[in-house]
Queue: 3 jobs
Job 1
Amino acid sequence: MISVLFAVLTAFSNGAASVLQRRAARDAPDSEAMRLSLFGHLLRQRVWLAGICLVVVAAVCQAVALATGPIAVVQPIFVIELPFALLLAGFAMRVRLPGSLWYSVAAMTAGLALGMASAAPGGGAASVRGAVWVPALILTGIFEAVLIGAALGTRGNARGALLGLAAACGYALTAALMKDAMARLEGGGGAMALLTSWQLYATAAAGVGALFLLQNALQAGMLVAVQPPLTLGDALISVLYGVMLFGEHLRTGWWLVPELVAIALIAVGSVDLARSPLASGTAPLPPRRRR
């Protein structure tokens, strides 16, 4: 229950941060795409800095969640990031949310519940044993290189979607490394074992890389193109890391049918929510009527 609670808190913080970062990144000039100078532009944006503060809060909550639960349980919960963010934005801006948005929120929530109930993720070790990280990091590097190479050959929403998926892979890798690092803290070595583990510094590097890819994805394309691969990619790749690295288990066989239905519900809901004016930062929805 602790891991689920902190996973929900992480989703809330990350969802709000994603919308804030999108509002800042969309005004960045095209000449700064895929360059470190993009961060220089964003650092001057207060809304982007507010989003980064929420990212830090989310990182702390995520560390607690991963330290107390399987990665295949924690990471899929993050699909509710966008619904949380839009509901919060609607409350803060005092706008009336249309019925279609609530249907999309319901679709994503139902998809998450169906997927978790069908897959029933669990088990697994607290840390990665042996040299399993070596092939995992090599395959991840190849996958990221292919996505980034393909993105550089496109523009607009296609580039945003590809970089969004690359960012999702980076965030999933960050979660796996973070879980392995936190296991060092709980393994009896204390803070010194954590500070001397390569996983801790790899977590920071992967997190910064994923953040860089996400900012470029948001700068290149609309949120409706970036959010679905980011949402589903993070969840699915994280589950893959959980199974392959930590030995966590999922239901298979005929359970794959409701699991695929759950993925479809989350995908449809994510696309619809990303089209919302609250998510894209365009004109606000009609205000609520006073009674």
Job 2
Amino acid sequence: MRSIWNGSISFGLVTIPVKTYSATDRTSSVSFVRIHEKDGAPVQYRKICELDGEEVPNEEVGKGYQPPGDDTVVPITDDDLSQLPMPTAKTLSILSFVDPAEIDPLQMDKSYYLGPNGAAAVKPYTVLREALEHHRKVAIGKVAMRGRESLAMLRAHDGAIVMHQLLWPDQIRPATGIAPDEVEIRENEMTLAETLMDSLGALDPAELHDDYREAVEELVAAKLEGAEPVVPATPSGAQVIDLTAALEKSVRAAQGGAAQAEESASVTPIRGRKTAKKATAKKTAAGGTDKKATSRRTTAQKTAAKSTARKSPEKTATKKAAPKKASAKKTSARKSG
């Protein structure tokens, strides 16, 4: 691994020569080149002078500073910058040791590994690393790299010292107008959210991979083979669901109930009084439906009887006469008694 900056760490009266190595590799991420859509040829970037319209070679490109709100550009040379008072140009000066929780992750920028530069630097380097790890602190200092001074944080990691360049506090934008107004949260919602957090378990870095990069690679391979790219199914848009029900299902899914997680959270009943009332209402509605059905059958029977009476007047007359005879027999029986 090639070092990109050589300097030293100033730790009180102790000076530790170090070499700096990039701790991240972004070459594996997806990157595209610009092409002319008409013929597929790459599009070149050329530096054009705005004054004469001519292309400027790289050796003639310099630096300039444009004050905010002003159109004037002030030329700045490397000699001008080299004469500026910058004690951190080759030395990372440690200013304080703080708790890691005091550093806002928003301030973290680029990351670098620091390694001892020479045999004489091994012992003080190891002492600083062990002190950071044992004391559970991080070091805050200032360093100038590539013509810019920035804050820096040092921490122990995997047997080495890692340096994180930090943004200055005034480079962090406030969240004004972004945070929502106060929202009432029920106790069971908070409990379910915390249970879900505990149920997800530990994160295995070995299982993390770039799905987008893999999809792009499959797309490119399909195009090179002349095959039609497979278009994955597009997930449906966001739906408004019951928060408590969604949390309950998420907890069950995280705890192993994968089959239950396939169901829609919107149909999960919320246990409580409201559900009981709904169940009672359903039974009442069902009972009302049965009564309506019985009423319809009775009406249909009456209608059929009337229709039969119209078709068979003799049978109807016989039925009407029968009750009279029975009534006569009952009257005779009373007289005899």
Job 3
Amino acid sequence: MRRTSKLTRVAVGVASIALAATACGGTSSDSGSDSDTSGDAKGLAIAYDIGGKGDQSFNDAAYAGLQKAQKEFGYQTDDVEPTEGETDADKEQRLSSLARQGYNPVIGVGFAYGPAMEAVAKKYPKTTFGIVDSVVEGSNVASLVFAEEQASYLAGVAAAKATKSNTVGFVGGVDIPLIHKFEAGYKQGVQDTSGGKVKVVSQYLTQTAEEGGFSSPDKGKAAAEGQIEKKADVVYQAAGLSGQGVIEAAAKAKVWAIGVDSDQYKQAALANYKNYILTSALKDVGGAVYALAKSVHDDKPLTGTQTFDLKVNGVGLSESNPEFAKISGLSDAVAKAKEGIIDGSIKVKTE
């Protein structure tokens, strides 16, 4: 039977991990037999999702968790980039290589690692594996999942309070169930806060990740420009690297952008646009990565579904931009909504 639990606050702190400057991750070759390594154990290794390191969002948050673990535990780590047009077999080879080299835990960043993770975990039963944004069955697998809809609801509350045109936008990277959670929560937050007076214009960039929905800033920019033409003056993006284009377009038009996953107001690569990043819907991927690494280091490896929600500060909303506090009623409305979600009086939709 699969064990399901919610992590305690000890390992989780939204926005508490500062994202580091980006650099290229190393790559590993696959060699040897499909069995657990007998060499000295190494520490955490992560395999990036589409967009790789430098997305100022999802992947960079995972890297921040790796850096925190590396600094605290003083062990060897590795982080590996994806390749364009790769297959499940490529992902399987990447995870196998890391496990064979002795890294523990090995984390696949993103739901796309699901099939590969299921296969590789069986081959390396002594290694703890983690997967972000997906549930994979396995006695040595921790599925690190988030209540994205809750953070997105708060983003919707903020958008409804900030809009002057009564039109706001949502840009999703890929039309898949995971991103539907972001849209659903956002729309509900907007509607609940405005009493249905604010219109939400939504667009998905691609139908599949292979088409570049999470890795094409130009697509994000074009989508945001289209929504701004329709009078949207707040645009929320859940689009990975493509979200940088959304933020650029919003800043150029001098309207609000809402970031995702990391506190994008603080990202050096987005410094030119920061004044127009109202807030970010936070998803503590770094905290989840660190939590799994710590559990293995403490010889108490987490397995099963680990859920990060508002109750454990696994998701949230940033308030770094000073303008956030200046918008009438915004901070109070967000605080009230957060309290309602936590106590159960607000049920946030996922679809």
